[in-house]
Amino acid sequence: MSSRELVILGTGSQAPTRTRAHVSTVLRFDSQTILFDPGENTQRQAILAGVNLNRLTAICISHFHGDHCLGLPGVIQRRSLDNTHNNITPPGLPIFFPIDGAKFLDRLLTCSSFYDQSYSKPTPVNGNGPVDKIGDLQLSTAELKHRITTFGYRLDEPDRQKLNKQALSDRGLSGPIVGELLANGFVTVDGQTTTIEQVSITQAGQSMAFVMDTELCDGAAELADGVDLLVCESTFANEQADLASKYQHLTAGQAGQLAQETNARRLVLTHFSARYPDTSLLGDQARVHHQDVVVAEDLMTIPFPHRQ
Fold this sequence. Notes:
About 25% of the residues lie in helices and about 30% in strands. It has 9 helices and 18 strands. It has helices at about 40-50, 70-85, 100-110, 165-170, 175-185, 220-225, 240-245, 250-260, 280-285, and strands at about 5-10, 25-30, 30-35, 60, 95-100, 120-125, 130-135, 135-145, 150-155, 160-165, 185-190, 190-195, 200-205, 205-210, 230-235, 265-270, 295, 300-305. The radius of gyration is 22 Å and the shape is globular.
């Protein structure tokens, strides 16, 4: 059975705490399992959350501050170990990352001795716009505004044609004839030709954006525009807006504003400063601007909103 959900492996920023691992997020979307920003302890958190790292279909790294990437060696070496033990050659695993961080990625992938059977494919990102396809999903990037080069990511499912059962019934179409209609785009029965457009509706694809360390900027707005699920950093409370500005992060209120102004359907807050043992305040501050806010917790699963 396919699923569409986020699995939150970690929610901490800069330093982990007793209750929070470094930020790390997995998207399960039908047959795709995509890991965003594997912070320290991602391998351990994945075990606790029931995420099979060997089923990853892509990894996306926003930038090379340690809390967003120090878990990568464990992820890669675990994948390599599983592939070796199971004697399999899986599809290549693309790792998307800012191009000017290539030296850091190389260090993370080669930081210790192991027999590399990970089949990882470093794939540098160097600008805004569409980057690649992950299955049917279109991956796009936009540069964010942080202290080092940082990219956010967006995934868009294509629109699909969904058959209208009543329209099929009205035209007397059923059984193998419907299969012929799907295969050819049209079918002729008793001299009457029916196209698939006449008996179907367009079902809008779903979308997700991952916006980590940044100030409010055009790139963040571009990524978040109209998405079903916006995963957004919320490092500071509104009262620490000066620190947010100094270190180029978002407050909870700014994350709420971003979701509201871009018509994102559901906002997921993560990447919390260790100064907030209770993050409910951050959720309250974001909800001033946006109604559907989830304050992420480690090992939480968050579903996509139902289709509109």
